[in-house]
Amino acid sequence: EVQVVESGGDLVQPGRSLRLSCTASGFTFGDYAMSWVRQAPGKGLEWVSFIRSKASGGTTEYAASVKGRFTISRDDSKSLAYLQMNSLKTEDTAVYYCTRDPFTVVRGGYYYYMDVWGKGTTVTVSS
Amino acid sequence: EIVMTQSPVTLSVSPGDRATLSCRASQSVNSNLAWYQQKPGQAPRLLIYGASTRATGIPARFSGSGSGTEFTLTISSLQSEDFAVYYCQQYNNWPPFTFGQGTKLEIK
Description:
The complex is a heterodimer of chains A (127) and B (108). Chain A has no helices and 13 strands.
């Protein structure tokens, strides 16, 4: 079964750090880009971060709201993706989802969508 | 940043009827548009990508259409399990990937 499972969510104080993990199974992890998407309580979906496959350069992208504070990474040997979150703010409180991101190629452009989602892990930032 | 606007915010439909959900992009996203379904307490699930391609295992009563800036998700003959929140998302001009605010489909 193709799945991703998030872990690492916790209650932390503002200004502290936390690392989330995403464990993939049922597919060749290294062939795919991965993203983190979050959902604040009672709110909609917000994309957070993205990492390409090694074959596509392994480069990363971030939402403006987390750039400079969050770092996405991957360990293909362990089928793991990570989200290192530093200098946490109360507005980072959310359920964090990991997604698998396949792509289509159109006229040389790569277009990624999110086809597999984990159940999420909850991050609460509060004093 | 491309802004995605969904309408209506809430849609009340009777089981067995058709539901039509709309999504508008602030600029063209070609056909790089996905739809997701989210039920309470669950993760989102991909329904449609490429504006009109159903994801694996998605019933044929779900269909997507549109291109450019105007998109529609149609659910024919609503089943009880279809009542949920639906999000559109563009992946044409990124970062950032952007989602609509969601349409809640409720039982009339």
